[in-house]
């Protein structure tokens, strides 16, 4: 596996790969890899000749009171996992390599960023769009892979690619879960033993809420079913429970072909998110 820290070295390898006519699959990450990331690599491996992974904890998407310094990092472990997964090139730049200058030009996420996680994290998705725009230009991928666990991020990136004609395809990959249903996440390491035992109830609650919505087509009732199950079964504090159209993320769910029931829950040292996406045409 090729390992590079500098943009010039990355571009040299990308140019050679493209010159040889190979397709490039790209998996952008913030590291501390788990099986969810590996599922993205597996899909990229199947569909492309050359797989690039980036590891970069992006400061632009962290607010002033968020956990940038606490975000788990283990490059040695991540490198070993990337090799075992069949990554061809690992790009792990430093912050001054990715952001050496600031000319004052910014990218702003639209209304999709005003709900769910974006409602309590102003500027977060602006930072996401900043880094993925740079990475897409640097890696020049044929296809780029994102997990559905971060469904709001996925929707916003799909919109960016569509509206600004990026010459690449965004591929959605299903959420990878523990045996008890908890979505894989780098932040799961911050859960206490008691919280870890409670955490799978989040997915159970979302499933119950979505089952109710399939029957009644009532978004408020589905949300209340979800809320009650989380409140009765966990010590966590609910940040939000929302049922919205997907991927445009509006409250107009009646005539949309797909909806998302999304949840965020605070535990003492971790904030967990999860969701289910439903093709609503199945119920018409």
Automatic annotation (TrEMBL):
Residues binding ATP, per UniProt: 30-37, 147-150, 176, 184-187
Pathway annotation from the record: Cofactor biosynthesis; (R)-pantothenate biosynthesis; (R)-pantothenate from (R)-pantoate and beta-alanine: step 1/1
Cited InterPro entries: Cyt_trans-like, Pantoate_ligase, Pantoate_ligase_C, Rossmann-like_a/b/a_fold
GO biological process: one example: pantothenate biosynthetic process
Binding site for (R)-pantoate: 61, 153
Pfam families according to UniProt: Pantoate_ligase
Keywords: ATP-binding, Cytoplasm, Ligase, Nucleotide-binding, Pantothenate biosynthesis
Catalytic residues (UniProt): 37
Signal peptide from the UniProt entry: none
Assembly notes: Homodimer.
This protein's name: Pantothenate synthetase
Organism listed in the record: Paenisporosarcina quisquiliarum
